[in-house]
Every structure is written in structure tokens, then in C-alpha cells.
Amino acid sequence: MSTKYKALVVGASGIIGNALVRELKERPEWQVRALPRTFVDGVETIQADLTDAAATARALEAARDTTHVFYAALKGGADLLDEERINGGMLRNLLDGLKAVGAPLQRVVHYQGAKVYGVHLGPTRAPFYEDDPRHMTPNFYYVQEDLLRERGAAGDFEWSILRPDVVVGDIAGNPMNIVMVMGVFAALSKAAGVPLRFPGTDTVYSGVLAQTTDADWMARASVWAALDPAAGGEAFNLVNEPFRWERIWRRVADAFDMEVGPPQPFPLAKQMPLKAAAWARLVEQHGLQSLPYEKLVGWWFGDFVFNTAFDMVSDMGKIRRAGFTEAVETEATIERAIARLRAARQLP
Questions:
Q1: Is the pLDDT of residue 1 over 60?
Q2: What is the pTM of this model?
């Protein structure tokens, strides 16, 4: 079967992007390129600094046949306003570059986190619905979405947006990979001879306050969002069923052959950097990849996730009514991610 679609996965080295590249590579109707790089072998890569409009346009000469963009790039800033300027500019530079080289772009699939609902600002009313009112700016997701709507209205391409939350994947070195946070924490707890104890509050541990999105599942949803007419010009929540952390914690403990202890709240970002030497011993003992400990996980992200004491629940009705009805089990996705990270020698 000859390729019918030409995909450009932007942010291909991240949790979302890597899963997308892996999924598209297995589909014979798709040809996939990665920007800037990917952990999947045999995929063409493009190097471009998306903050540089001219350099981006030059680099995209190699992708002038792109029909679909999957945009998962993200760059931090000094503050929310700087983050908005940087990320809005990156998407604009990419779209301008593809237009300049005459790419026959059909649809852009974009990804927004729960920050689009203002969860980074404090307690937010749940469930989250796609048509909820916006909060006070700055928020770079709003700038990017408005740009897509503007270009779509001008007839440049169609667009679709997926809104995951706490993405579960198998990439090490990404600060927002919650599985690496849990896996490294579990491994260090076991090495210290202590049970696996949830480092957040008992309220968060036992409450129905959390949700995740499996990266592989989202990759399959992304193909649907790229091609299905019902997905055009729409934003969709995409999350697994809400869960209690205590259920997840038991499955993580089982994966590491550990006992579970009662929650013990403490700041991971303050305490866990002190365990660099202990992790170095585990790396040597188990022959793990020697990724610098300070780049291994984002302990601050664990602190945010494990201490968010308000409902984090996104309504999934809209995407199901539109036609994407596949479901996955949350616990199984986390176990699978741990297994893959072990196979890659990132976890003991």
C-alpha cells in the first residue's frame, strides 16, 4: 500500500510525540517525519529552531509535501507571559514556514493540557467541558488555538485539538512523565528499605481527584482526529477514567515487589535531589542508562500532581459522541509504561 498521508510530528522527542511517531510508522498509509528528533528508529528527522522564523522556513523545505501536522512542541519561559510569547511564536513560525514552501496541509492536530482550564491557577470547577469559559490570560494555549482558528477560517487548513491530562508514556528525561516520577521514587524507596508511601496528602490519595492519558491511546485518537470529518474544527477532552491514587499506588508497589505504607506528605522537589548518590548505585547495580539524575524526572511535577486537592475530571462525552470510543484501563497503561522503561534500562 502506497503512502497517502505525509505527517510531520512536531515535538517528536516528548512523551506525546514519541508515541505518535511509533504509531504512524506502523501504518502503511502514512509517511512520518519527526521534528526535531525521535527515539524511534528508521524515521526521517528535521532539525529546526522553531523560535527562529527564517531558520524554520529553511528547514521545512524538506517537508514541503506535509499533509498533516501533529503539534506537540512545548518550550518553557520565564513566566506565563513569556511562555505565551514563545509558544505562540513557535506555532506561527511553523505554519508560516509550511505555507512558504507550499505544503498541501490538510489538517493540524494540536494538543492542550488541563492548563487550558486554569488548573495551574488554583481550584477549578469540574468536570471540565470543552466549551467552558476561558480564564484571565496569559495562557499560551489560547494564543495557539486562536491562531489555528484564524488560519482555518482563512482556508489554509482544518484543525483539531485534543486535551489530555498527565500523559503516561515511556520516555525518560521528560520532566512531566509521571511514570518516571513514580518509578524512580519506588526504586529509591525499595533501596532504602522503606515501603512505598504516597508523598501527597491522604485527601488526594483516597479521593477521586485524578486522571491520566495514555500516550499510545492518544496516538490512536490522534489519527482519528487527523482524518475523521467529525473532528474538524473541534476540541476534545481525552482522558482515561478518573481514579483513586491508592489503587495506582498498589499496582506500582506490586511492579516493584514492595509493600504499601500510609501516605507521608513531603516535598519531592526538596527531598529527592538528595538521593543522587543512591540512584547512582542503582544505575551501577542494574546496568541502567546513565542519564544525569537532575534530568531524570521532574520532582516538582510530582509535587503538583500528588497535592492537587481539587477535582481533576474532564468530561469525555463529546469525543465519544463524535465517534472515538476506544477505552483503556488506567492501571494497565501505567504497568505497561513501567515495563517499557525497564526494557529500555531506565528503571530497575
A1: no
A2: 0.94
